[in-house]
Amino acid sequence: MALVQSSRAARQFWTAPNQLTLLRLLFIPFVIISVFDGDWPWALGLLIAAAVSDALDGLLARTLHQQTLLGQYLDPIADKMLLSSLFLVLSFVKKIPWKYTVVVFTRDIGIVATAVVLYAAVGFRDFRPSIFGKINTACQIATVWFVVLAQVLEANWLNLVVKLLLYATFTFTTISAVHYALLTGHRLRTAQTKAVVSG
To answer: How far apart, in whole angstroms, are the C-alpha atoms of residue 194 and residue 118?
Structure first.
């Protein structure tokens, strides 16, 4: 049985979509180095490559019917690691105020800690993202994209867009954190009710 599971995991690992996701993880140190070195065109190019790989791995997964359990976990992890790393380094180089990065990290750490505790305590694993979580992720992606773009192109409208996106990120990070807590509580009660009924 263990051999079968190992073989299945290996097959999932080597699918084209998952390899693209892993490639996106490899971009992270190079993006960080580019930001610290002030090589903004290179950082922007790596972000474009990461975006293309993200879109391509989803397209390939659907087209080749290679949607795997590993990919469902790996893809959002790669996105979150890239986003979190960028928020952190962009704050270090004073392109994003620290208060926004602290809010983003506080939410993410809180969600991960909650997921670990609930899974360890009661085996609960329904942690699907909410609509507010998806909007929040979109705001974060747009924020880091335009912050980096603003270092390549000098335009007043870019500074305005960055400011609006930072406000949007702060707002939806807060809203999604509260909504996530309420939604997880509801899902947990529903799961417990079903367990009692079926038991």
So the answer is: 17
Residues 114, 12: Cα–Cα separation, whole Å:
28
Tokens of 162: 């960055």
Q: Is residue 84 exposed (0-12), middle (13-18) or buried (19+ Cβ within 10 Å)? A: middle
Would you state the structure tokens that stand for residue 37, as one six-digit string?
Answer: 């070195």
Section 26-43 average pLDDT: 92
Give the pair of three-digit tokens for residue 197: 């009924």
Counting Cα atoms < 13 Å in the Cβ hemisphere of 169 gives 31
State in Å, rounded, how far the first CA of the chain is from the last one.
Answer: 28
Rounded CA-CA distance 197/161 in Å is: 51
CB atoms near residue 85 (< 10 Å): 17
CA distance 47 to 168: 21
In SS3 terms, 161-179 reads as HHHHHHHHHHHHHHHHHHH
Give the model confidence (pLDDT) of 136-191 as tens digits: 888 998 999 999 999 999 889 999 999 999 999 999 999 988 887 777 776 667 66
